[in-house]
Model the fold of this input.
Amino acid sequence: MAVMKIQKTPSIRRMPTYLHKLVEMQMEGVPFVSTTQLADYMNLEPIVVRKDIGITGISGQPGIGYKTDKLIAAIRRFLGWDSVIEACLVGAGSLGSALLGYDGFENYGLKISTAFDRDTAKIGSYIHGREIFDYKQLPELVAQLGLKLGIICVPAPCAQAVADQLTDCGIKAIWNFANVSLKLPEDVVVQREVIAGGLALLSVKLGQQNSLINAEEKNGN
Amino acid sequence: MAVMKIQKTPSIRRMPTYLHKLVEMQMEGVPFVSTTQLADYMNLEPIVVRKDIGITGISGQPGIGYKTDKLIAAIRRFLGWDSVIEACLVGAGSLGSALLGYDGFENYGLKISTAFDRDTAKIGSYIHGREIFDYKQLPELVAQLGLKLGIICVPAPCAQAVADQLTDCGIKAIWNFANVSLKLPEDVVVQREVIAGGLALLSVKLGQQNSLINAEEKNGN
DNA sequence: TAGATTGTTAATCGATTAACAATC
DNA sequence: TAGATTGTTAATCGATTAACAATC
Done:
């Protein structure tokens, strides 16, 4: 199978943020939204939002904007979030627990239907109202529920073994929060979250800001 | 002050991952690393790694690679992680707790020196060995410790107020995990983590993969 | 009619990839 | 000498930005 290359990554990454704001506006009863409004909210230029929305295929009304409901629907459809996908989570440590407790996923087409851990102290307990199952039961339950998405929250050294187990069970997509690069079959897609990536960006911004300030001080401003 | 625009965002985001792997190799006693090795690990092309490393300014040895120690130092210097920056964390909920428990930050030039919450049940307790302070004490402690970085882990509706408070106290950089876009003074840098952004990317990949499979089935492959 | 916004086309900019001489 | 790798230059590709007619 050909290696996939996704384009418009920056646009796709912005979609959930539009969605979040739009749902909020929808609840407030706002019937129309313009790219200007969304751009203001996100601190970017309207043309960026216009292009992003363009790829969903929706059309708006010149001079007015987009119907809030339709725009929400268009973004959901584009992302494949119009039908809920069920997932299993492996590793109920602090990060895994945080994800289990996050109630925004319902807006993002995701439902974590089962959670697993190896720790006997956790097995059978409930975290944010969800039972933690024995990791040994994973193949059985994943097959039974026909799950296609797995979320890995185990420590880095265990992550590859868990990933192998998941793909053996028919999982086709992995959301990887472990700090390690996984080797997977070509027909399995993976998204690795590297929290430190954001920190790196922030650090570089801070460094640039500081040198800017120093430069201005030098110029007597 | 001019609005900052950081370039080479994708390269910067990859830096911590290089760093993580390099530190691992260093501990294993590997003296030299080539871009080929790093590329293999990260599932990308060597030229990408070569370009990324290039921006740190380090030079390697043709035919051999880079000295592991020197490369680690170069990446740390580039990111400003050669000196530890102290931060405060606001909001000791499940995500805040997970961050407090993450022990990888020491490698990333970050030390969370204080954590705050408003909840009296949490104040005075210890999470992952760190005392949780009353949010009311924030101005006092931030000033006392001279902190420049704040990490926001409070619910979205409180995030802007916390951000305002932080900037009032002299915080110059904010790492925002709340699901809201913050309005900040121009001299304060911000990095917002949108966890759902990664999920959006994964969903689109999964959709593309599925249509690829369908196409191949149609062609009888 | 005036102001706001969409949607498209073109221009610019930056990131990725390719190619290859120089070096170990 | 053969193989591997760096570092640089050029080519390609895609994303961002600008401009503007069409529409409400």
In short: The first strand of chain A starts at residue 32 and ends at 33. The radius of gyration of chain A is 21 Å. Chain A has eight helices and nine strands. The CA atoms of residues 57 and 84 of chain A lie 21 Å apart.
